[in-house]
């Protein structure tokens, strides 16, 4: 029986960090880089209070997020050895369910609808591995965790960090 992996969407296969930066630049005319926002939280990401949250509630936000570099190829590779589930705590954002489902259909058409889990709290997930960028999801997970690098988790090291999809493949294909 194959081991299983839960892979987060936002910040792991969907590059929402870059998406926030692009939208902020479009709306406010100020260009920030990922280095500029390192160590900030989503609440303190931009000088304008609530800007990131406003973007996340904007129609089309989740549908138009860019794919994380290397994610498509890596997920395909992982599916050769593991049972892969895409797991997103999507309930907070009303528009996200339809948009995330469509985004997956367009960008990851090889993932079955049976392997897509939208939930409110990831503590219900019981896979062997979880790849996520948020500590709130990783801290209570019972399996092996991989913390995908993001601006908001740069100051934390109590989960094994992966900086990109190449590192994920090196770790998980070697462990299989």
Automatic annotation (TrEMBL):
Belongs to the 5'(3')-deoxyribonucleotidase family. The active site is at residues 8, 10. It holds the Pfam family NT5C. GO terms for molecular function: 5'-nucleotidase activity. It comes from Mucilaginibacter psychrotolerans. GO terms for biological process: pyrimidine deoxyribonucleotide catabolic process. It comes from the Bacteria. InterPro entries: 5'(3')-deoxyribonucleotidase, HAD-like_sf, HAD_sf. This is 5'(3')-deoxyribonucleotidase.
């Amino acid at each position: 029986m194959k081991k299983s992996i839960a892979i987060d969407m936002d910040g792991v296969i969907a590059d929402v960090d870059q998406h926030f930066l692009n939208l902020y630049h479009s709306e406010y005319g100020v260009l920030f880089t990922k280095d500029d926002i390192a160590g900030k939280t989503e609440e303190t990401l931009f000088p304008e209070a609530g800007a990131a949250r406003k973007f996340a509630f904007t129609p089309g936000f989740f549908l138009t997020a860019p794919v994380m570099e290397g994610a498509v190829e890596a997920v395909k590779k992982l599916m050769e050895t593991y049972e892969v589930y895409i797991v997103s705590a999507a309930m907070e954002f009303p528009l996200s369910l339809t948009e995330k489902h469509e985004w997956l259909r367009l960008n990851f058409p090889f993932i079955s609808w049976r392997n897509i889990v939208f939930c409110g709290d990831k503590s219900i997930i019981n896979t062997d591995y979880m790849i996520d960028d948020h500590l709130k999801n990783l801290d209570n997970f019972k399996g092996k965790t991989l913390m995908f690098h993001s601006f908001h988790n740069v100051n934390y090291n109590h989960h094994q960090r992966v900086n990109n999809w190449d590192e994920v493949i090196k770790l998980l294909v070697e462990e299989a």
